[in-house]
Amino acid sequence: MSVPSSSPTPQMLRRASLRSVLDFMRASTIVTISDVMEGTGLARATAISVCEEIMDRGWITELENQREFGEYLKGRPARRFVLNQEAGYVVGLDVGVSKVTAVVSNLRGEIVGRVSQQFRGVQITADDSIPGSDISPRERVSAIDSTACEALRKAGVTPDAVLAVSAGIAAPVGRNGDVLVTQPFWDLLDVGLKSALKELHGWTVLLANDGNLAALGERWRGSAVGVDDVVVILASERFGSGVIDDGRLLHGCGGGAGELAFLKQVEGVGDTFGIALMARTWAAEALAGSDDTLLREYPAEAIEAEHVFAAARQGDAVARRILDRLADRMARVIGAVATIHNPELVVIGGAVAKSAGALLDPIAEQLPQFTATPPRLAVSPLGDAVVTMGAVRSALDFVEKETLDIELHHS
Fold this sequence. Notes:
Elements: H1 10-26, E1 31-32, H2 33-40, H3 44-56, E2 60-63, E3 80-83, E4 89-95, E5 99-106, E6 111-118, H4 137-155, E7 162-169, H5 193-201, E8 205-209, H6 210-221, E9 230-234, E10 240-245, E11 248-249, H7 275-287, H8 305-313, H9 317-341, E12 345-349, H10 353-356, H11 360-366, E13 376-379, H12 386-404
Parallel strand pairs: 4-7, 7-8, 9-12, 12-13
Antiparallel strand pairs: 1-3, 2-3, 4-5, 5-6, 9-10, 10-11
Helix pairs in contact: 1-3, 2-3, 6-12, 7-9, 8-9, 9-11
């Protein structure tokens, strides 16, 4: 019996060359063929033909050579190319239970428009209630659509210039884009978004788990650049995570890889409530007591996690105790995740990341109690943009793949 060859085909090699040049062009300004050769390792003939092929598809533009710039005084001037970053746009969506954020990106991955909108009357609390359960799927889709359209308007981009949309939701999503609905409130996010936006605008919509997109965004432009084994934990309201193992994003058969519902069984955790939610909850409990604290400057119903972190920085004893509790909680969460996945790095992401740096040292001190394989720790520099950044990366990957999967001219 013959064994299929695992050697790359000419078409596979050509596609890899095209992607390599596109990646190089996205990170560069004006380049010559020599620049492309140096940046990608391609031979001159291959670099020239690949640039011409990508130019035919509208992704890059060849500039006129102007001798008056003084670059080329003798012989034929070098050909110069630049990414045609306005040849199309992608939209990244972060669709949560309480709000939606939309960003618009050009083909270079630069954000040119951003809008956030709260869903009507949704408040997340540390109990078993299901927030936003009275909002119909149609109302959610309408709010998501209006947010995306407003982001496009702010960017000066028309809907017909959108090449793809990627949306992250706080529920498991399989490889085929189906939402796994087995837990309370996940069904709130299964609103038929793909078909609705396709019908409204003709857009191709990719649906993904928000933790998975956070992992893509963090590895692309966050603190996990160049790290092949990383877990990104979204830690603001509820815990969720995305796992990259040996450079590959893990999904699981139903999209459940990285889900943290098992934290309900972890001693000292018991639920999936995140740092921001627990900081608010414990601060409100403290204000109901008689402790003297700087947190009394705020009404209990208006206190936020950043108020707790700010008070702790000023030496407030009540706030410091809350941070100690948060560090213990996070050490247990990260210890469980590290035991399962053994990553090199765990990144704390989400809106709370801008404050969570204060927790890293106490978490690291406690981690050896909860795992035999303590990872490095970091907070995301992307803050609450980590999911939309991953959504942009996902959409750009899709657009590039669709472009590169067109019958290759030289295959």
